[in-house]
Amino acid sequence: MSKIDRDYIFSFLSIAARTVGGLTVFIANARIFGPEQFGVLMSWFAVAAFLAILPNFGVVPVILRDCAKAIDGGFRIVSDLLNVKLCLTAATVPFAILLSAILPDGVVFGLLSATHIADTYIDFFLAVLRARGKFRYEAVSYSIYSALSLIFIILVGYLSTSLELVALSFFLSRLAFAIVLMARVTQLYEDKFRLLPIRRSLFLAKSHAGYLIDLGLQSAMVNLDSTILRIVAGPYSVGLYQAGTKIAYGFCTAIGVISNVMIPRNSRRFSEGDRIGVIKSITWGFLSVGLALGVTNYGVMTLLMPKVYGDHFSSIIVLAPILSAFLVARFIASGFGIILVLANEARARILALSVSVAVLVCGCAWLGARYGAVGAAATLLASTLVTAGLMLVAVNQTRLSSVCR
């Protein structure tokens, strides 16, 4: 078995552990709280995600792309970006505290905000491990973490039907894993991480502003629909909608399996001129996997999920064809997005996502108010198709430019 094959397997095991663990937690909470309270929890989960945009600032693809090419293993890159994260986290925390004091369910919102921020550090350190080829360590550590956090969070939910305690269990489990990963990353480098002056960190943040905007738009694509649906249709519709989309997004994590290996492996090949070959392999790879998982998603949502979620969620069957089509479109768009990352075409990604977010906001406000969860799902599909179409145009321009050379 080649090293690339092993990397794919370990990456799959890692993301499978993350997906199964996370999905099981959300299903358990849905059964415990029912559509109404589950909708409240998930709507605040979606709103809190926006506060994590700044500390995250979208540089995971940069780490995967650049650290794999760096002679020193990317220590300078990792050190600089970690300083930026710390600086932006310090700027975000006061806003989280202020909003927690103002908003209803403020404690839940504050804890979920802290959960999302801790998640950004988990993603950051995992990206470093992948770039250094430590896929096996990631798979083992994430499997152990997922099992332990799964037991912890579900136990808290069953013992106490308090949204505050469930939110606290989310945060504590993420924080513990982030600390473990940080310790492992520091062992990879002989040099020690040092704090940079704030001015230097802000300068670095500004140089990566394109990735921050890209991430913000991606976050809007994932979380705005539930936020708007809560306003126009209420938490019950959010609960049904999230119950369906969690399944589809669970399958979407296969995107990470492919991209975690594909970006580092194709970065040098793409930069050395084999653009057309890379574009073909990525496009067909994502399309074939997307079609297979779209069919699987339809079967799972129609045959299995109504029994797993319980009678209160039986109506999610009507979302199955829409969300299955969304899944295929999402894979196609993600393949094009990876090509644009390799081509360093952040502007094209931002343009595509900006138009898609506009479609999502307008469509969800209109169709969500009229048709509830079904309208929101239809809007999600439409906005994803717009993303795929606009990115296809940009990828085609990239291909033509390589031919002209």
From TrEMBL:
A single Gene Ontology CC term: plasma membrane
Membrane topology type: Multi-pass membrane protein
Transmembrane segments: 12-32, 44-64, 84-103, 109-128, 140-159, 165-183, 203-221, 241-263, 284-304, 316-343, 350-369, 375-395
Major place of residence: membrane
Keyword line: Cell membrane, Membrane, Transmembrane, Transmembrane helix
Claim: Cell membrane is one of the keywords in the record: yes
Cell compartments where the protein resides: Cell membrane
Pfam families to which the protein is assigned, alphabetical: Polysacc_synt
InterPro entries: Poly_Biosynth_Transport, Polysacc_synth
Protein name (database record): Polysaccharide biosynthesis protein C-terminal domain-containing protein
Naturally occurring in which organism (per UniProt): Cupriavidus yeoncheonensis
